[in-house]
Design a protein that fits this description.
The chain is an alpha+beta fold and about 140 residues long. The protein has one domain. The protein has five helices and six strands, in the order H-E-E-E-E-H-E-E-H-H-H. The protein has a six-stranded antiparallel beta sheet with strand order 1-2-3-4-6-5, with helices on one face. Helix 1 packs parallel to helix 3. The chain is globular. The N and C termini lie far apart (about 50 Å).
């Protein structure tokens, strides 16, 4: 398979997630959107960029899963290079993590969908703790 085929696989899978749309990215490539929110984008050379809250970005870096963003290294953005078919699953995992931070916002950690998504993602214990903390703070903010 070629890189172009790999990128099409990523596009097709993410576009199949509920309420996700794709459009050309302003700097080239494909952008994935959930309403007005950008889930992430992938350039034609395989460079995947995703916005995260700094707490998630910091843990992804600590887990050695991503690199700092190639242009905005001090932001919440991350970069991940898709070089071969073996990188597709990590790219999809990262995009799913971004997608879930929007779709699970305001849900309880005990919500069955949250629990299922956590089982599917299987985040490291430190990353899971960060995600649980973000969910808890979003739930408290929603109740206030």
């Amino acid at each position: 398979m070629s890189l172009k085929d790999d990128l099409h696989r990523i596009r097709d899978e993410v576009a199949g997630w509920e309420s996700v749309s794709t459009e050309p990215h302003r700097f080239g490539g494909i952008e994935f959107r959930l309403g007005k929110a950008e889930v992430g984008h992938i350039h034609g050379n395989g460079l995947l960029d995703i916005p995260f809250p700094l707490t998630i970005r910091s843990q992804l870096l600590a887990d050695n899963l991503v690199s700092k963003h190639h242009v905005l290294p001090d932001s919440g953005w991350i970069s991940f290079m898709v070089r071969s078919e073996s990188d597709i699953s990590r790219a999809l995992w990262l995009l799913r993590l971004s997608y879930l931070r929007y779709t699970l916002k305001g849900r309880s950690i005990d919500d069955p969908r949250v629990q299922q998504e956590f089982r599917d993602l299987n985040p490291s214990p430190p990353l899971r703790a960060v995600l649980e903390q973000l969910l808890a703070s979003a739930t408290v903010a929603r109740r206030a």
